[in-house]
Write a structure and sequence with these properties.
Order of helices and strands: HEHEHEHEHEHEHHEEEHHHHH
Strand content: 15-25%
Number of strands: 9
Helix content: 40-55%
Number of helices: 13
Structural class: alpha/beta
Oligomer: single chain
Strand order of the largest sheet: 4-3-2-5-6-9-7
CATH architecture of the largest domain: 3-Layer(aba) Sandwich
Shape: elongated
Largest sheet: 7 strands, mixed
Length: about 290
């Protein structure tokens, strides 16, 4: 665990200036690290995926509790620090790679005790969460450090203007079981936004998990994006104008007759379960799933 003094020493030693463009705010709070470990409920069988390990403040503790930690870091300077500080850790697999470019499904979809624990870069947190939910819904849980506003958005249900694809995917995966407030003073440098740690646990009946082998969940994510392309328009107009695989008027009419959803509703008014059912009906017509 790295406190403020040690963090500054490492940054000076390696001549590193935290990069705002990468969202680099290093965790320096031992109590928060302990809470992250506690709610993650790791075991000696756990394989942990960590995203953006930075200087390794959380990584070093994860290595004590998990069987293996696969850590993805985009910054070459951080890689140098991690390789030196954690060179004796045989259960660490360190990757110098943008997590958004990794084929997580190919690498980890067969894992039985797979969990994600990460202090996500706030500027791409929604993209990363959506990628995790559609590529590795077999993960038992995600424990994530996020901007407070992001937590609010992904916790939403229908009938809120900020409700969208990320919240829908989360509801089809599981539920948020823990939320922990994190003060700006827990980071160096201090961010100008409020933060929270949340845990999202997989539901035993998770739609995403149960369909990960027989459905292309990336196409479902794209479908959601297309449905929300024009938020203030009805779902009828979004399906008509924004689907990559165009449906004829006759096909849309047949889907509407199934009465899965009221086509006069806006996307923000439709539940996660109804979106999944709507996707299945659309997929039947494009014959690609």
């Amino acid at each position: 665990m790295l406190d403020l003094s040690t963090t500054k020493e490492i940054l000076n030693e390696f001549n590193i200036l935290p990069r705002q463009s990468l969202g680099q705010n290093f965790l320096i709070s031992q109590p928060i690290v302990q809470k992250i470990i506690e709610i993650s409920n790791l075991s000696k069988q756990s394989h942990v995926l960590e995203i953006g390990p930075g200087l390794g403040s959380l990584t070093s503790v994860l290595l004590e509790f998990a069987a293996k930690v696969s850590a993805y870091e985009i910054d070459e300077q951080m890689i140098a620090v991690l390789e030196q500080r954690l060179s004796d850790k045989s259960n660490l697999a360190l990757y110098h790679q943008n997590i958004l470019q990794a084929d997580l499904h190919a690498l980890y979809a067969k894992e039985q005790n797979f969990q994600v624990v990460a202090n996500l870069p706030y500027y791409i947190s929604a993209e990363i969460i959506e990628k995790l939910l559609t590529e590795v819904p077999n993960m038992k849980s995600m424990t994530l450090m996020l901007q407070k506003e992001a937590v609010e958005r992904i916790s939403l249900g229908p009938n809120d203007s900020r409700y969208g694809p990320t919240a829908i995917l989360i509801q089809l995966y599981g539920k948020i079981t823990d939320k922990i407030k994190v003060a700006s003073s827990c980071f160096y440098p201090q961010p100008g936004v409020s933060s929270q740690v949340i845990k999202i646990a997989r539901d035993p009946k998770s739609v995403l998990f149960l369909n990960m082998e027989n459905m292309n969940l990336l196409k479902f994510k794209d479908f959601l994006k297309q449905c929300f392309a024009q938020r203030r328009k009805t779902i009828r107009n979004n399906l008509k104008n924004n689907l990559k695989t165009k449906l004829s008027e006759q096909e849309l009419s047949k889907i509407e007759q199934l009465k899965i959803v009221d086509f006069d509703l806006r996307p923000e008014q439709i539940t996660a379960k109804k979106f999944w059912q709507l996707y299945l009906s659309v997929a039947n017509y494009n014959d690609k799933d």
